[in-house]
Amino acid sequence: MPHNLDKNKKKCYTNSSTLKNIQIQKKEVTAMKYKVEVLTGIRPTGDLTVANYLGAVVPVVELQAQGVSPVVFVADLHAITDNEPTTVRQYIHSVVADYIALGVDPKKAKIYLQSDIAGEVTTLTALLARHISVAELLRVPTLKDKLKANANPKTANALLLLYPVLMAADILLNRARKVPVGEDQLAHMEVTRLLARRFNKRYGEVFPVPEVLQVKSLRLLSLKGEGKMSKTNPRGAIFLTDDLKTVANKIKAAETAFEGIMNEKLESHILVAKGLAKTESEREEVDAIIKAHKSGKPVMGQFKQLLTRIVQNFLGEFQEKKAEIVRDPFYIPSVLKEGAKVARENAIETLEEVERVLYHTQ
Ligand code: AMP
């Protein structure tokens, strides 16, 4: 099952001169260099919510604004852990259009589809999976939470167990330096770092150990205050696809707080309002209303009107941009094609190094 090495390159290794051998041996004790500065994945599992935008897209757009060229991959293989493959396929182009309309610029960022390099990803997954035990994977806290929440260990599919290994393969194939993650993904990153160190120790320094780029922790709540804002609870979520009337109705029915009281729900709505506001003066309007609320004035109706206006403006602009992006049916495929080319080159280079230390090919 080894990944297909480029025949000419392999020949070049086997026919190498003494000098080349020395260089190769030296390379074996020198960790490979990082290749991608920042890597992030998106699961194409449905329409995005404003929480996805503020929690996952904004950090990438901010990094891009600081001059970093992120690599974004659409994690369709991860997504089939808990979604039908047909559903996942249906959202691939849509989620790429979302990211571009939200500010990820394909001229700066590379966007690729995980399954476009499925051979490389699954090969490395298998090679890495040998270095972690089933017992260790069962102890990954995120898995424990998922099993408690909506799956039973007896019936949960095995991809759930392998999820952190697949994630490690994505990161290590890219030789990514930084991976922006929220608190929920910290344990997965530890698995990636552990696998990189174990593999390096056993076979030679192949993988640069990635760093965690912990993004500002953000946990937006459902508008109705029932847990996190999430695709799986549509009543309390504002989707990027919601029309203006739907948004107004959802915000009208949102739970807030009694005069003078601050609670988690209201704090979350304030974060949405300020995060989506286009201008400083809108943010000041939010502050003024909240100040009045804290002093005991009945201003929640006013706050909801302002929140509705801010969200509607944001969505109106976003939906217009997205419509423009998807108007050309060849645009998204061309972005993904270009991304796949770069990702494949990078992945093949990494796997060649992996195979060289594994099989002592030169
Ligand atoms: P999901 O849609 O659950 O796959 O979430 C994808 C990413 O969106 C998460 O890893 C977070 O970065 C972000 N996200 C999703 N829901 C929320 C939320 N309620 N609050 C903040 N960020 C969120």
Can you put this structure into words, describing what you see?
This protein has 362 residues and is α/β, with parallel strands linked by helices. It folds into two domains: 7-219 and 329-359, HUPs (Rossmann fold, 3-Layer(aba) Sandwich); 242-325, no CATH class. Helices cover 59% and strands 7% of the residues. The protein is built from 15 helices and five strands. The chain has helices at 7-14, 18-28, 50-65, 76-79, 85-101, 118-129, 134-138, 141-150, 158-174, 186-203, 244-252, 264-276, 280-294, 300-327, 331-359; strands at 36-42, 71-74, 110-113, 176-181, 211-214. It has a five-stranded parallel β-sheet, with helices on both faces. The longest helix is centred in the last third of the chain and has 29 residues, at 331-359. The chain is globular, with a radius of gyration of 23 Å. Residues 1-29 have low confidence and may be disordered. The structure holds adenosine monophosphate (AMP). Residues 43, 51-52, 55-56, 182, 218-220, 228-231 line the site of adenosine monophosphate.
Element layout with pairings:
Layout: H1 7-14, H2 18-28, E1 36-42, H3 50-65, E2 71-74, H4 76-79, H5 85-101, E3 110-113, H6 118-129, H7 134-138, H8 141-150, H9 158-174, E4 176-181, H10 186-203, E5 211-214, H11 244-252, H12 264-276, H13 280-294, H14 300-327, H15 331-359
Helix pairs in contact: 5-14, 6-9, 9-10, 11-14, 12-14, 13-14
Bound molecules: adenosine monophosphate (AMP).
Adenosine monophosphate is lined by residues 43, 51-52, 55-56, 182, 218-220, 228-231.
